[in-house]
């Protein structure tokens, strides 16, 4: 294994300086673009009030499904100047050479691609157990290698955030960052391999439905990951909680991935962090989108959206559905507190293979997580405590239907 020195963060900082310099030449263009876009578009969301009303929220819920990318609040150079400490946790990360990772992934061959993000591809590879040397496919340790596009400046910022947070944070429900590579314009990250891919794939892209028991297990694990982030002495707001960022191992244990948008939470007497608005419509909390004020309750809202996706089998935003059903929250929230209408929300692919009490409790948790008032939302610790008992329920709807008269069976179908 290579020896590590505590100067690895300095290596990252040197890489950023070059990227920051490249951005300086574009500052005048950014200013001109900003001046030319002072007039609000029809989809512009208000960001002036700390309290949003139902009408403003409706505008948010009906917005198109696109990435939230407001202008940068600070340059990369400024951010580096603020980063003066070198954390010893970074020294636990392995430093790979580009050639090692090229060999480990079979020259980044197309058939090794696991997925593609906004800033590059993720490849499957193999490394030796006790070091950074590449291994033959099927031997050593299986890893996932994320490669950043060389020209992705914003991607570099998020790349650094990944190292910043996952270099320090370790928990069973967070994906493990093994190491990194930084050579010239090459930026790569090496993670543990998650055999079953993302929750998004299992919910929306597989022919067979994800079993109810697996959904509860995944929801509980993901909630534990968020609770860990929020509960530390220096809380972290994940800011990008969505189905595609929840990865699953071979036993369906959930782990949060992609910390590129994570943000240090408020400290001391501060109630929120004021920041640029990033994320994805349909998952981001309305008050955050409209004010730029970020709190841990923003993550709680996003968790509520994903919980709805697991309950219904529907995407948070789906323009292919009829008007009134395209935004999952807007469509489902009115039904969550009504037991007579609740079962019409349940993913029909489950075919009554779900717990009746479990569905009721999941709907209740989602309802409170999606509260319009952030202060009324539960903490993630409270969510975890509510979810854990649901893993042991065996009151399956299918068994319940068999014991009822035919005239009563339609009640669960409505």
TrEMBL record:
The record's listing under CDD domains reads: STKc_IRAK
Q: Which UniProt keywords apply?
A: ATP-binding, Kinase, Nucleotide-binding, Plant defense, Receptor, Serine/threonine-protein kinase, Transferase
Checking Pfam families in the record gives: PK_Tyr_Ser-Thr
- Give the E.C. number(s): 2.7.11.1
- Gene Ontology MF annotations: ATP binding; protein serine/threonine kinase activity
Q: Which residues form the Protein kinase domain?
A: 108-391
Q: Which residues hold ATP?
A: 146
Q: Give the UniProt record's GO annotations in the biological process aspect.
A: defense response
Tell me which family the UniProt entry assigns to this protein: Belongs to the protein kinase superfamily.
Put simply, this protein is called non-specific serine/threonine protein kinase
Q: From what organism does this protein derive?
A: Iris pallida (Sweet iris)
């Amino acid at each position: 294994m290579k020896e590590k020195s505590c100067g690895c963060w300095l290596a990252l900082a040197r890489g950023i300086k070059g990227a920051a310099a490249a951005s300086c030449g574009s500052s005048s263009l950014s200013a001109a673009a900003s001046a030319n876009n002072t007039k609000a578009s029809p989809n512009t969301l208000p960001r002036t009030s700390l309290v949003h009303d139902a009408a403003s929220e409706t505008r948010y819920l009906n917005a198109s499904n696109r990435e939230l990318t407001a202008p940068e609040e600070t340059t990369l150079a400024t951010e580096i100047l603020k980063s003066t400490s070198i954390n010893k946790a970074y020294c636990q990360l392995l430093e790979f050479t580009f050639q090692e990772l090229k060999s480990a992934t079979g020259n980044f061959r197309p058939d090794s691609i696991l997925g593609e993000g906004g800033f590059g591809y993720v490849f499957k590879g193999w490394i030796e157990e006790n070091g950074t040397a590449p291994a033959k496919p099927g031997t050593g340790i299986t890893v996932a290698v994320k490669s950043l596009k060389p020209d992705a400046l914003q991607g570099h910022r998020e790349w650094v955030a990944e190292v910043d947070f996952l270099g320090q944070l370790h928990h069973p429900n967070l994906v493990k960052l093994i190491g990194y590579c930084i050579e010239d314009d090459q930026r790569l990250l090496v993670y543990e391999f998650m055999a079953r891919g993302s929750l998004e794939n299992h919910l929306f892209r597989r022919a067979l439905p994800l079993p109810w028991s697996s959904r509860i297990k995944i929801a509980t694990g993901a909630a534990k990951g968020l609770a860990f982030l929020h509960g530390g002495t220096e809380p972290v707001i994940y800011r990008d909680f969505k189905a595609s960022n929840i990865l699953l191992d071979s036993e369906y244990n959930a782990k949060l991935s992609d910390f590129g948008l994570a943000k240090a939470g408020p400290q001391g007497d501060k109630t929120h962090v004021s920041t640029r608005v990033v994320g994805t419509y349909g998952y981001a909390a309305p008050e955050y989108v409209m004010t730029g004020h970020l709190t841990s309750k923003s993550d709680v809202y996003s968790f509520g959206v994903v919980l709805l996706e697991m309950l219904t089998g529907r995407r948070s935003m789906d323009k292919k559905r009829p008007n009134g059903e395209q935004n999952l929250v807007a469509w489902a929230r009115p039904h969550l507190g009504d037991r007579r209408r609740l079962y019409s929300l349940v993913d029909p692919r489950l075919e009554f293979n779900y717990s009746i009490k479990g569905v009721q409790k999941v709907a209740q948790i989602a309802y409170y997580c999606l509260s319009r008032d952030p202060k009324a939302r539960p903490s993630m610790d409270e969510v975890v405590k509510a979810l854990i008992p649901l893993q042991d329920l065996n009151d399956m709807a299918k068994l319940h239907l068999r014991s009822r008269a035919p005239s009563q069976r339609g009640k669960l179908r409505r």
